[in-house]
Amino acid sequence: MFQSFIATVALLATLVSVANGECANACNGHGKCTSYDMCICNRNWQASDCSERICQFGLAHVDTPKGDLDMSGSLSGPNHLVVDNAFAYPYGTTEQFPAMEDTDLRVTDNSAHYYMECSNKGKCDRSTGECVCYDGYDGVACQRASCPGYPSSCSGHGVCKSKAQLASSDDFNLYRLWDKDSTMGCECDVGYSGADCSEQTCKNGIDPLYLDDSATIKFSTFDFATLTTAATIDFTDGALQAGTGHWAIRFFDVYGEDWLTPPIAAGASCSDVVAALESLPNNVISPGNTYCSVTSKANRAENTWKTYDAQHPLAAAKPYLITYNLSIWEADTPTSLGELSQYTAIQAEGSSASANKATTKLSGYIYRLKFYGNPGALKQPQIELYLDGKRPSLVSPGGKVITKVWTDGQQGESNDYFADHCDKVTVTVSTTAGVTYLAGMTGAEKALLKACLGDSDFDSGNNVGVYNWDVGSAQYPHLIKLVRTVSLYTDGGYYAALWFDSSVSTLDGSNTAGTFKLLNPFTPPDHVATDVYEVYTTKGTLALTSNLSQAVFSFASNNIFVTNTSFENLANVEYDGDISCEVSRDDTPYKFQYVSHCLNKSDIFTLLNWDAPAYNPPFLNLYTATRVGRNPFQYTVGQVPLISTIGGVASTNPSTDDLHYQTHLIRTDLSTNWGHALKYSVTPTGTFRVYKFFPAVASTYNYVGECSNRGLCARDTGICTCFPGYTNDDCSVQNSIAL
Fold it and tell me: What is the pTM for the complete model shown?
């Protein structure tokens, strides 16, 4: 009782001192006493005596209303400030969610994640001013959703990054939503996976049950070109010492890890290039499993250069003809725009727009490397020239060094999207008068092939004949894979697009009406026109994205631009050629009126010229879109020669009408194996279009995977436990005595 009395007396003494204007000491040195004997606290302090700290604020992970602050029995609206001039809320606060404003003090509707103390995911320690975060959140304001395992994030086998960082690491994608710096995730080191990077990945291998009498495996085959515009081959280093220039290959394994070879001398032999690859650590390139061939030419004009000795109907003995033309999207001015006469091109970056490209000559080396020991879909390798800091290690006096990497229809794959074998059908490939077609079939085989091809346009209701199939069209051609009947399992197959021309009855020699015409002028890779092929079909669909959007691209480039030059003929409706699935505020309401099938990142597609199939490459690549983006338009119609009067139709205002050339970009995983320049007319024909491929689950076989799909991966050790009957460290070997 006595102690309670003493405490009461002390409290009264304090109140008296405050009443007598002596509150300065009561503000604890963190505020100022007013003439009304009240404490006005300094910034980040609160309470009647300024003894409590205010914690840091951050964007609220979850918004919560504060409730009935004035105890009126109801919640006032978001625009009604109930508490004003509060220490923690200097701009006031509301009982409901506040009406958020932008920097111009305009109320923004449908907004959320208002700034809150400790980001609404922690409690404030008033004695220290530090947030005590709830589990799963960290930061001085609890502003981050922690990476798994925090504070020992990502199990020591990865890096904790924000959403924005994780997105940007994937080929320049942008993530700009409210939690771009708040939601965290692990980017695992190669060989580890899982949300916290605690799981080890096992070795990949080829499923032994995938192989049959004619199935083959697509191993990655890449061409590496080191070329110069100088009159003779003279690659040197920065000191201009003849014969001492070097380059290197950056190789990516199936897990995406990159490995840089030791320097490779300019003009190296195949054995030297393979030795450099096989010297990579950790047996990345297993010895004896890489095939190399090389061709070298000196001072060759574009009409005589060739890299490999196969045939092409438009350029006899030059199917890999490399022409030298100014890069249509690296030119300083658009005056160099024009239609290429050849189907392939290497562009000369930085060349004069007025230079005579017909007389430009190339010298150099092209290596073809096939990686038999590295199954699966591999990221495209790169040529590195800066091996000495900022100084290039490969230069060419009197000329420009050009390096390119591409694949020619022999891309590595982990999934076979053409796993439906057309039984009892074999074909040959022939060319007559510039038309390439399937031959060597009997009438019965043609009927079986029709049944195997089946539907091509997502609509089985319009199929024809007793074979219940589509003949194929410019909108929906068929896509198949051809595999030689006599081949090694490492040969791989070749993609071919086709349609059935029922009006032709004499080309294939079957005496049965109609001919299966190929859109790509496929040529047997070993020159033997009598090669016999098995046919693999798919229930997947190849679909034209838009018949008004033409593709423009350089040889061996990962960038493809899509545009439309015929908009002046669309009743003044401007469609700029965009085929992306994303809709932005800049899109016209007519966009999807001209887009049948839009394209997203990760979609598979190819490029085809329906009107002039002879200009398609002999061997098709299937590309994966790694980015689908938009840039500001580059040119007006009047800035480009001949476009101001497209096809004789005058532009409404050529000085201001947007051409939208170079506006819409598709970035690919693989480089193109030919090039095509901008073509303009009211209804451009003979142009390349983007065809999107829709795989079908029923026709897809995943044949390269962890433990070769014939075992289980022990995630704690990264070691395969094989099923009975399979062995090896990747379970890729069948063994009747394996248990």
Answer: 0.81
